[in-house]
What we know:
The complex is a heterodimer.
Chain A: H1 5-24, H2 32-37, H3 44-55, H4 58-71, H5 77-85, H6 87-103, H7 108-116, H8 119-152, H9 156-206, H10 209-219, H11 234-248, H12 252-255, H13 264-278, H14 281-294, H15 302-306, H16 316-353, H17 360-383, H18 390-413, H19 419-442, H20 444-450, H21 457-475, H22 481-488
Helix pairs in contact in A: 1-9, 1-16, 3-9, 3-13, 3-16, 4-14, 4-16, 5-11, 6-13, 7-8, 7-18, 8-9, 8-16, 8-17, 8-18, 8-19, 9-10, 9-14, 9-16, 9-17, 10-14, 11-18, 16-17, 18-19, 18-21, 19-20, 19-21
Chain B: H1 8-24, H2 28-33, H3 45-66
Helix pairs in contact in B: 1-3
Amino acid sequence: MNEWLPQLVVIGYLVxxxxxxxxxxxxxxxxxADYVAGERAFGPVVMYFVVGATIFSAYALLxxxxxxxxxxxxxxxxxxxxxxxFVPVFYFGxxxxxxxxxxxxxxxxxxxxARFGSRLVTGTMGVATVLAFLPYLVxxxxxxxxxxxxxxxxSNSVGAFIVYAVVVAYVVVGGVRGxxxxxxxxxxxxxxxxxxxxxxxxxxxxxxxxxxxxxxxAERPDTLTLPGPGPTTDWQxxxxxxxxxxxxxxxxxxxxxxxxxxxxxxxxxTAVLYPTFLFFLVPLLLLGYCAVLAGGPxxxxxxxxxxxxxxxxxTTLVVAFVAFAVLAASMSTGDALLHAGASIAxxxxxxxxxxxxxxxxxxxxxxxxxxxxxALVTFGLLGIADSISIVDLLLLAYAVPIQxxxxxxxxxxxxxxxxxxxxxxxxxxxxxxxVLFVCKVAMPWLYVILNPSDVQIGVMxxxxxxxxxxxxxxxxxxxxxxxxxxxxx
Amino acid sequence: MKRRTTGAIGRWALxxxxxxxxxxxxxxxxxxxxxxxxxxLGLPWSLAYVLAVVLANATVLAILHAARxxxxxxxxxxxxxxxxxxTPP
Lengths: 489, 89
């Protein structure tokens, strides 16, 4: 019986997620406002889990304990940036929700593009977003493949295909409501399983959290403070936090959730409650320190490795629930990325950027096709993921949302910002990021000259963006005050 | 006309959040936070310190929200009535 438990748990979870997501598709009108923004009707429980589960990916579950083993307390940065990362949403989220309701916006780029009356801004943001999603999606598929291999014995690629066939099915049928309903299940499962493991494993192996840290202090004190075993310099640690804070609220799949809340106050409440989800990372850190003491590997297999220790007894069921949690993390991020990516490709790139008029039904149909296409492209990239550096691509991906921050703040709070300033700033920021990325990968000698302090390329792009946005705006004629008042007033 | 812009306290709170960011990075974190002692509930100070900042920020956000100090108006703009829903300007 025991050997079937992992299969039962994993397959049972996938079936429930599929049924739940498809059932969600039976609610609502099925138009664009329903498919992308859930008719702006999400309540507090759904908003809480949608935002929390979307942000916590397979990378957080598998990567946090790995980072503790490899770099010690450098891993605390993931909690540190979350402490501040969602504050911007508290400030601008209510306004974004009201503007969305008033003008029918369902994406980030639509709002910014409309403020500046610029199709170039909408289309460029859309293209950059979809490209930035790809490496992030590959990571989710990789995480799903790893645990499907561990729990069902199938190859990583077959496992990832099975999991993402389920995700595609419920995103196509259920839209954002399918994403949301499954995220409630996935978020609750992650919280319960991870806290259970984080308290049980230290207790079973070392007699509790306190005694475990007693041993870490005695045997590996270097892992509890900076610079740690990495080692991580002060500058690296600080820049990791600052870069993450700047980009955190600008990820379009997160920003778009402001449009789904049933009230502006609820968007703010979600930001208030978000830190409680952040505490879910603490047990992952504890598991990482268990692995430090037990001599675990410093790669993404360390979570499964530590919960499989023979000292824990028969861990078949435990491994099954870890697989469940990792799948939940992978799917809850992957579904949001697929849904947002397809929605953005249609609304921002095709309709907004290229100016191709599509009626409501056509938009929804193309979004559903887009979900399938994006999943297939990601699966194709997974096949060559070993020959290209996903970490390098993630560097590029994380630099993109930072470019949206100056533009979004200018759109919402700076009357003097002009279309020319917005367009030039965005192109300067993204161009800087692209040039530095290409140089870093292909011409390191030139990169050292251009960026001698190795400042994160997103920050370099953001600085260029800000400078150009302000300069060009100040030397070009101001916008019509009536238009500006609708956004900045 | 109703004002829903961020109030003075909300703007001061922004300074608080900027300060809390400084608390989390070098040189303040390395000077005040990156130590093993004192232990808090068995956790090393370096982790307890970060969690304390998270808790403090969450508390400040909760107060701002409960007291409606930041952009708290949930009603539409006065000129919303004349806005054509679904039609960007």
